[in-house]
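call fold(seq) -> tokens
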Amino acid sequence: MRSILCVLAVALASVSLHAQGTVQPDPLHRNWQASWITHPTAPLREPLVLHFRRTLHLATVPDRYPVRVSADNRFILFVNGHRVGDGPARGDLTHWRYERFDLAPFLQSGKNLIAATVWNFGVYAPVAQMSDRTAFLLESESSEMSISTPKGWLVEQDSGQRPLDRTSVTLQTYMAAGPGEQIDAALYDWAWDDLSVAGPGWVPAASPMRDSIYAGTNKAHSADSTDDNSWGLVPDTLPPMEFSPTSVGLAVRTQVLKAGLVQPHLDGFPVAPVTVPVGSHVHLLLDRKTLTTAYPRLIVSGGKGAQIRITYAEALYDKNQHKADRDAVADRTALGLVDSFLSDGNPHRSFEPLWWRTWRYLDLDIETGDDPLQLESLTANFTAYPFQERATFKSGDPDLDKIWEISWRTARLDAHETYMDTPYYEQLQYVGDTRLQALISYAVADDDRLAIQALCAFDDSRIPEGLTRSRYPSSLPQSIPTFSLLYVGMVHDYWMYRPDDQGLVSSLLPGTRTVLDWFANYQQPTGLLRRLHWWSFIDWVSSGEIPTYDANGASCVTTLEYLGALVEAADLENAHGDPNLASRYRDHAANLRKDLFANCWSASRGLIADNPDQKNFSQQANVLAVLYDVVPKDRQQQVLRQMVAIEPGTTPDGVLSASYYFRFYLARALEHTGLSAEYLRSLDPWRKLLPLHFSTWPETPGETRSDSHAWTSHPIYDLLTLTAGIEPASPGFATVRIAPNLGALPSLTATYPHPQGEINVVYQRHGSGLSATITLPAKLTGVFVFNGKTWPLTPGLNKILAQ
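ret:
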């Protein structure tokens, strides 16, 4: 039932469809007539690239020709050589997505070729990709002109395209994303999607279940079917990912490592074609100034025996593999993921990887043999979730404008079919990162479809003991119990920010209960949590991680996160679940506050310690202790003022600093204690990154691995909610509370895309006072708060002179 609600919630929120033609929403329950198909002899769980094809004869082109398509792992669908779309969106085997397309815009009278590339990278596949075996599925809704698999479908294995192993990556660090790829042009079937050609490698497609006792049951089934099948199919209710032209970059450096009789001149590429002479080895470095996630496409002619290695980099590295100013080129090198293209000497050969790449800098390492190679063109198509930037924020402060711009770019690149921590290294949907990303989606884009996907995915990930996985989907299980607590907060965020017409929150409460039940088993007589199983991650600090437990295995900081989840779960239960359970959660939380203060408060330091032995103190523990009222009200501002001054990567007075990520919770604590005016000062760590020319925000201060990390992009949310002061005053954002905190800014204008329509605010300071012009949607009411005074807000125009 909960899975159905997840599908309904996204479907009703959708404003776009999966195809150029119009396709009506798919029914949740349906009987599939198509069967899964694959290659009859290829190893189906090993790295594999397959092409499928089928002809369709039409006397006339129909107005609509809807089809449903899926594959394991992935497919790209073509009609008459035109790219129709790709998929399926990632999920698990119980919730395996299929896509819907209308093929009519691509069809022609007479003979048509329907074709697909399907691939499975096996042991080299990205960690976020779950899989059973390589297979393809297509079902057409037209019974008279059906092209449903398996009838009439042919398949070939393409040995010319394969994944590269991990040793090909020239920067050795934790890489959970997919592999580089190689196309050997001499082995690749360049006519695989040509209507007039069908080479000798094509054979009739077969059932993917041939090695199983269930070989006769390969017909597709929906997720709630009781029949045997490897994939429980559910419709992908997300819109198609954006696919639009973008700059690949311009040449900023040419290095000639070896020249034949003719000196290479390549600086004009990719604006104009260039030729690499015989016997040459050159590096051509392109810089597009900002990071992107895109599909590059290189077209070359000639150059038989030439090898082209393409390296994608977020930034350049010196000889010691250190980064600096992201604009610095000089003698720096591109390191990271590598693709390879081996030319066969024929004209107009193209290289395009099956999965998108992430880069600011792109390095072409080209070696030619006895045949000159012409680089004809290098283009790219940007891809990401199709968020629209609907919020605005204008303050007259150029630093804040830049922080907003970079935050939005980071949020966009870290959102595709799922949210992602980093588009370069991992591409995994983690609870800690995703909670912040979902709030940005609500506040800036008024779009909750990807967030609903994430909420449901994490609920699907729960293990029998009750916890969610820390990241999902993921073929490599990982458990961070503290992230399960943040998942409860993520459900609470959705409840506050989004109308819940389909009862999604109620359907998720059984999962939040099992999480809290699991933690209750770890409480000690002191009330504090003992050492948890798996990874008790709180935050990165300059020394690595917060020391979460003392010698006796007790933890204050972990218990603080448990306290926060109890508070949030009590709200959810009271509104949508069991009021008696809500009361028990509140009582439990009240007792935990007393236990935490008794065991963790250091009178001599005036701070909460990380653990009962009071040897370690951190910004993280004190921010949480203030946010959840463990620190008495009359001391909260004093504690928090000390925390604001601590910058990431520092340890003043022995207090461990919070990362960029955890400063999200610092911002919440500032608001909680009435110190929101301090928020703009807390942005200094982001301001200090601007001279280093980041185009997206990094994972950590200093020598960071990732230059684009979702959890550092929350200032775009904070500027709207704390500085412009626009927040929900009641669940579902049914009413609004507007409490601006301009700090030293003389004026501010902002637009907030509320579910009912735009909220527009214009602020102008007058000494210690403020004039505010606020426009609300037609049915929205709320309050305006400034300097401890409150004014009612009504639909339409509101003008307030606050002193």
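The first helix runs from residue 2 to 13.
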